Structures are given as structure tokens and as C-alpha cells.
Amino acid sequence: MALQSAALAESESGAAADPAGEATTSQGPARVWLRVLRAPLTLTGVLITLVFLFLAVIGPWISPYDPSAVSDAASAAPSASHLLGTTQNGQDILSQMLYGARASMVVGLGAAVVTTVLSVLVGVTAGYVGGLGDEALSLLANVFLVLPSLPLTIILAAYLPHSGSLGIILVISVTGWAWGARVLRAQTLSLRKRDFVEAARATGEKTWRIILKDILPNQVAVIAAAFLGTVTGAILTQASLAFLGLTDVTQWSWGTILYWAQVSSALLTGAWWWFVPAGLAIAVLGTALSLVNFGIDEFINPRLRQAGIGTKKAQRAQVVKRRTKRVKQRGPVVARPAGAPFTPDSTDVILDVRDLKVDYVSDGSRTPAVSDVSFTLRRGEVLGIAGESGSGKSTLAYAITRLHKPPAEISQGEIVYTKADGGTVDVLGMDEDELRDFRWEELSIVFQSAMHALNPIMRVGEQIEDVIIAHRPRMTRQERAARVVELLGIVGIPADRAGSYPHELSGGMRQRAMIAVGLALDPEIIVMDEPTTALDVVIQRQIIEKIMELKDRLGFSVVFITHDLSLLIELSDTIAVMYGGKIVETAAADDFYRRPQHPYSRGLLASFPTLGGPKRELTGIVGSPPDLRRLPSGCAFRPRCPLAFDACAAEIPRLYQVTGPDGGTSRAACLLHAEGAPKSAAPNGPDATDGPDTTTTNELATGEMR
């Protein structure tokens, strides 16, 4: 595919003609930190925290006295020789504060690290793995959650009175990890069902890589907030245990200072300088950590970052220029040659699905979501699949790509893929490694709702590059960058947008970015699951034109799933209509439009208004789609069908071949086409006439679509 020059030309022109681009130019890590530190509250919190950390490190070295040394200056108020005064025994309180800062900070940070690691390991593992592992880890977390933490902490601390900071860290970690694990499990359960995680699985990413690159980065704000909260909580807990005398009171910490002040009745004697500094230090540090927490979301979430800090158009142009230069030096990426254009009489089958059945299994019951579905996809063909919500379209797409997960289960059928060299592959017989090589190399998927299918915290270029890394580990970084630029150019996105986050792109550009991800490895088949959902008609038109242009140029086959029949008729070579988990009609797009053979298809077409000709009443289809757990006897469409007769309640119709007046053939699962059916009610019976304006005796119009 020698498309690189065109892609670069389009990229350069796009960069030059994008006046708003500067506002969405990506920021490097240094600029993100700059933006965070420019927030007054966050900067204040960071500075205060750094001061405490600095004092904790150098405190014992700059301490003016030994904190345990006794002197004659008993209960002395703050003075030049003792800046924070002395205790009842003449010990210098400033020295005790400096020594105590290290102990308190070590406990706070140590407990936070151990607690956070335990929470992440248990919560993320339980949420992502699921099954028995999830149940076991969740049970463990629930046990610790129901235990009263304060009494448990006191009991454990009482048994470890001389273990020092390590013992306190262990006590706090054991009693505090469960809550964070529960929160992270809930977040992981939500994230693992998001389209961008499914896309990562589909591209062949390994589980550990998905967790590290897709799951954890989207939870950094939660993890960081929990970490900072644990630091504050651990310092308070350590101070409380020390104040109660449950720790080694000979080891100086802020809590130990408060303990001796309480034992010596400092409040009653008016020695405020004994207890105020320690209490104030704990309060100030807790406030500082809270202020730092305010800036975490802005640092983690690209939506909250204000773009353009210190950015100049000249700098941006230089970045694009350097990237373009590297691409030109590397030369074009060798790609799979395009096949011959598709023709209606083609017999070159690339995907053969036979008697496919997908069930949802739960509590010993099986709900058929896809039943006995068979179809063929020819090389270069666009197969459109239509139907109401719940008809099994997306389940079929996930089954074809083997992305279905429990409780979905393929209980029968075959999916045979034919390679370009004529060899065949049993898709259902592939193991995980074979599937990883098959997906995106031979078959890719474009998920619906691009905003959810794209990882919100990764730049668009990085997400395209991830697919290449997963399947082309030997490609150099420069070669991958060249391929990203080429793919963006192919789908009509300027090269400088590779550094943009998904929220910085329009809906149409996000969808084109998803198509670029699908094209990354030049697959032979692309499954598009409602790629134009939630887009306005103008953007839909642009997406469809781009898909058709790329199909004709690159020669791949498409399985296009949508609710929009008018869109499907214009785009597809062949149309398959699903109802109740079955295919009820297949036909060439033009034959389907002019002579739909199934009453359900005629009802779908009658639901769309005409763009020309005489006005008519939209009839639509009465009733609702069937409950797949309790399908009606016989034909699933019978309760809603105005042409149903007695046999429809007793017999499940098979796909009958129907030949039109001009020789065109289609297949329809309707008993009206069986022998002995009442011909007066049949779609092509005596009461029907050929042409787009026909109506049956029951007034089911085909409708004018174009």
C-alpha cells in the first residue's frame, strides 16, 4: 500500500489549515506538571509536603539537642536557646519534633505503600479475573471490612508494643487495605466492560499488558487519592496509638510527644508549647496532602488539562516537520496487496459461518441469543446486518471475532476463514495464541461508540501504535510512527492529531480514528458494529463515504451492523435481517429494497419516510421484539405479523429461496413462501405488484428509500 505520500501531504495540509489545532496540541509531561504546579492550592500543598519530607530526612542531623537529653531548663517557654520550649524534664521540644518527623513520615508513607499495593493487587485482580478468583478475594476483603478496625488496631498494636515503626506499618496495612480493594474492584468491573478494553483484547494484547496500560492508568486518580488519604490516616493512627501508650514511647514521634504531654498534664499546667507543635504539624501535613489531592485529577485526566501552555505555532510546526522527515526517510510500509473488486457473481468466499448458535448460560438455564445462523462473506463484499435492538446483531459480531465472554457461549456451529492462498482456518478451533495472531492480522473490529472504545487517557497515536506493537514487535519506533502517520492520513486525520486525546477530537474524527485502528495491520475482514451510532447525518455520510473509499482502495471485506436500513441499503452489497436471534432474510441490497420477502423486512422499510413521491402514512411494526428466554411457538415474528396464519404457530420456518421476476434470488424464513401457503397474502402473491411503491393487502409498504 503505497499511500504514504498522500498521507503526508494530507497531514501537512491539515496541520496548516487547522487554526484550532494549537488549542488542542498535546502537552509533554513537563508542561502537564507545570500546569498542575501553577494551581495555587496544589502548589501550596506540594511545597508544604516537601518541607516536611525534607525535615524528616535531615531532622536528626540539624537537631540542636539530643531529644532525650535532660537539662535544668524544665518547662521553659519558647526562647532563643529552645525555640519551641522544653518539657517537664528540660528536653528540647524542637529536637523531639525533628526526630519525630522522620518516624511519623516513615509510618505514614510505609503504611500507605503497603496498603495501596495490597488494595491494587486484590481489587484489580478480583475485578478483572472474575469467576471463583473474584469470589474468593471479595470474600477476603469483606471479612476485613466487617471487622471493627479501631479495636482490631488497638489489639494488634498491644501485642506488638516494641516492634517499632515496622509493627505499626503492618498493623495499619492489615486493617486498612480492604476498603481500597473494594473500591478498585468496583472500578475494574466497570472498566473491563468498556469498549477500549475489549478493543485491546481484540488486538491481541496480553492480560498483564491490558491491566498495566488500560486498567490501572484509568484508576490512577483513585489509587493516588487513596494513597494520600492513607498517608494522612496512618500518621493519625500512629499518633493515636502512641498517645494511648500502645507503641514504644521511647521512640520519638509526634504521637509520642503528645503522649508525654498528656501524662505530664501539660494542658493543666499551661505548657501549650509542649502539645501545640505536634498537633499543628499533623494538621498542617494532613491539609497539605488534601491540597495535593485536588491537583491529581488535573494531572491524570487529560480533559481537565488546559492545553497550550507555553505552546507556539512554530514549535508545533517543527514537531510535524520532524515527524514527516522521519517518515520520508523510512519509506513506505509494505502492506497486503488489494484484491480484485467485488462483483455480485463472485464465488470467492472469505468467511463461511454455518449453523452458529450462541447461548447465554446462567443458573443452569440457557438463553439462545443467536440461533442457527448461517451466511457467507465474499472477498471484497459488504455484508449489512440489520434488525431491532436485541435481535442478536452484536452477539453475532462478538462471536465471529471470538470476543464473547461468559456467560456467552458458542454451543454449536462453524466459522471457517479462507486465506488468500486458499487455505482454510477453523476460527472456533483456535487457541488463545492462534486467536491473537488471527485478530487484527486477518480480522479486526470497529466498536460502536468511539468515545468509549478509545482509551480516554491515552493519545490517539499511542492507541494505534499499541496494535502494531502487539503484532509487530520487531518494528522500530520510527517505523511505527511512520505507520501511524500513514493510517491517520488514510482516514483523513491530520498527522499532528496523533498527539491528541480522544476528547479533543470531534465525534467523526474519533470514529475515523477507530477505523484507523481497525486498518492498522491491513486485515482482510473488518467487522463494524454500528460505527455511526450517535453521529449526525452529515458526519454519518462522511464516515460511510470514507469506508466505501477505503474498501474499494484496499479491497477488504466488511460486516456492517446497524439499525439504519436506509444507510445499509446504500452501503451494502448484501443485506441480512435478524429477528429473535435468527437471520430471517438475505438478499442483494437492490433486491431487498425493491422486493423484501419477509413481513418483518417490509415493516422495517415501511418505518422510514420517503424522500420523494406521494406522501404516505408510516406504518412501522406493532408490538415489541420477543423475549429470547420465552420465544413464541412456531415463527418468532408471528405475534407481530399481520400476515400470520395457522401454520405459523406450529412450525419454525426455514430459509426459503425466492426468485424475483427479474431472476434475482433472495432467501426468507417465512411460511408464506412454503408450498400450500395462502398465496393471496404472500409478498409476491396476486395482490402485490413489483416496484418500490407496492403495498400488500395488509398495507405493508416497502417504502421509497432513496
Structure description:
The structure is a single chain. The protein is α/β, with parallel strands linked by helices. It folds into three domains: 34-76 and 87-304, MetI-like fold, CATH 1.10.3720; 349-457 and 501-576, Rossmann fold (3-Layer(aba) Sandwich), CATH 3.40.50; 596-621 and 635-706, no CATH class. The chain is 47% helix and 12% strand. It has an eight-stranded mixed beta sheet, with helices on both faces. Strands 2-1-4-5 form a four-stranded antiparallel beta sheet. The chain is elongated, with a radius of gyration of 34 Å.
List the helices and strands and how they pair.
Elements: H1 4-16, H2 29-37, H3 40-62, H4 93-129, H5 131-146, H6 149-159, H7 164-191, H8 195-202, H9 207-215, H10 220-243, H11 254-263, H12 266-269, H13 272-294, H14 296-300, H15 313-330, E1 349-362, E2 365-378, E3 382-386, H16 393-400, E4 408-418, E5 424-426, H17 432-438, E6 443-446, H18 450-453, H19 460-471, H20 477-490, H21 507-518, E7 525-529, H22 537-554, E8 557-561, H23 565-571, E9 574-579, E10 582-588, H24 589-594, H25 599-606, E11 656-659, E12 665-668
Parallel strand pairs: 3-8, 3-9, 6-7, 7-8
Antiparallel strand pairs: 1-2, 1-4, 4-5, 9-10, 10-12, 11-12
